[in-house]
Structure prediction request, 259 residues.
Amino acid sequence: MAYETILVERRGPVACIRFNRPDKLNAMSTKMKDEILDALATAETDDGVRVVVFTGQGDKAFVAGADINEFKDRTAVEQWDLYQQPFLYDGVDRFSKPIIAMINGYCLGGGCELALACDIRIASDRAQIGQPEINIGIIPGGGGSQRLPRLVGLGKAMQLILTGDRISAVEAHRIGLVDEVVPHDQLESKTLEIANKIAEKSPIAVKLAKQAVKASARMGIEEGLRYEQTLFSLIFTTHDKNEGVRAFLEKRPPRWTGT
Ligand code: COA
Prediction:
C-alpha cells in the first residue's frame, strides 16, 4: 500500500517504518498515526516480518512531536472522540513482535512517547529527547506520564515533564531512557545488527518473552511471576522448544518453525 506520510521498507526479516515528513521534522499528524497503525497491522500478519524498526526520514528528526497545527482548533470533545478511535500508542504497545525505536534526531513529545511504547531504544549521539508539551501549555497525552516514570523513575520523569527540557542522547542513556547510544553514522548498522540477532531466534519464543517482560510493567510481582510460569509452561507445547533443546544436545544449529 502506498502511504503519504510514512515509508515502509523490508530489510530481510526487518520491516522499517520511516516517518516521512522531514520538512516538518516528522511531526505526527493524525494521518501519520493512522498510517503507522495500518503498516503495523500488515507487519503483524506477515510471518516474514520478525522485527519492526521505527525511524525518521532525513537527518534531523525521529519525530518532533504531535503536529501542533492540529491542536489549534481541536475541541475537548473532538480530542475525546480521537481517543475512542484505534490509538497508535496502544497499537504499538500490543504489537506482538519486537519494535525497535531507531532514534535519529529530535525525539520529542509524541515522538518520545512513541519510543517509550517500543521495546528497545537505540539513539544516535545527535538525538535530543524530551517531553516539551508543558512549554505549549499542555501535558503528555500518548502515555508519557505513565511509561516514562516506569523507565527512568518518578523524579527524573517529573523533572523532564515539568521543565519540558530536551536532553542529549548520552544523558538519556545515563538515566535509562534509551538503551544504547551510537555514533550517528553507525545508527542504522547497529540497529539492524540487534534486529537481525532477534530475528534469528525462535519467533514463538521471542513473542512469549516479549509478552512476559511487558507484563512486568502492568502486574505486581506475585502475579507477574505466576504469569511467567504460565508462559514458560506454554512454551513446552511448542515444536521450537523441542527443536532448540535437541539441537543443543546434538551440537547443531536449530531450525525454527515458529510453532
Ligand atoms: N508540529 C508541527 N510542526 C512542527 C513541529 C510540531 N511538533 N515541530 C517542528 N515543526 C515544523 C516547524 O513549524 C517548521 O515548519 P515551517 O518550516 O513550515 O515553519 C519545521 O517543522 C522546522 O522546524 P523549526 O522549528 O524551524 O526547526 P528548528 O531546528 O529551529 O527547531 C525544534 C527544532 C524541534 C526545537 C522545534 O521545531 C520545536 O520546538 N518543535 C516543537 C516540539 C514540541 O513542542 N513537540 C511537542 C508537541 S506536543
About this structure: The two ends are 29 Å apart (CA to CA). The chain has a mean pLDDT of 97. The chain has two domains: 6-199, 203-250. The first strand starts at residue 6 and ends at 11.
